[in-house]
């Protein structure tokens, strides 16, 4: 009987986690459609939840859009994920090498989940679906319906939001594995 109750609780919690993932995905994609960059969209989606001032968070994340200032390097949505993970789960003592190791393992896990789903964490590769140059012109592209139709960015942002939401929800349910040592 206890086992059955535990399974029911797990199913309810899993259902709640799925609801949270969908809501975070929707919110991040909505923010992107409002004109925030990919990194800002992720950071803004989670800022209040983790105790970050949204006004400060949006400015901090502003440099990471378009693969870091449109350099097409690490995807801004991935960078946004890392910023929130650092704020919520990061270390503060520069001499605590075990905490660094655990945190870097978390960042690599999040990157791995994103890479597994999308094939890369590099903006130019995500935009061209393979190694390619991608434009590093610093001029932002106008956000039109055509832009949203041909760019994978909204879906990539949604994926990053879901990955991070799931990790946060599971860490709250099961304890933060990055803090265990």
Strand content: under 5%
What would you call the quaternary organization?
single chain
Share of helix among residues?
A: over 70%
What is the count of DSSP helices, taking H or I runs of 4+ residues?
Answer: 9
- Please tell me how large the radius of gyration is: 17 Å
Q: How many independent structural domains?
A: 1
Largest sheet: none
What general form does the structure show?
globular
Commentary on this structure:
The protein has 181 residues and is mainly alpha-helical. It has one domain (2-179). The chain has helices at residues 2-33, 38-50, 54-61, 65-68, 76-89, 97-118, 123-128, 145-150, 153-174. The longest helix is centred in the N-terminal third of the chain and has 32 residues, at 2-33. The radius of gyration is 17 Å and the shape is globular.
In short:
The protein is built from nine helices and no strands.
For the structure shown, list the relevant keywords.
single chain, 181 residues, mainly alpha
Q: Which helices and strands appear, and what pairs or packs with what?
A:
Elements: H1 2-33, H2 38-50, H3 54-61, H4 65-68, H5 76-89, H6 97-118, H7 123-128, H8 145-150, H9 153-174
Helix pairs in contact: 1-2, 1-9, 2-3, 2-5, 2-9, 5-6, 5-9, 6-9
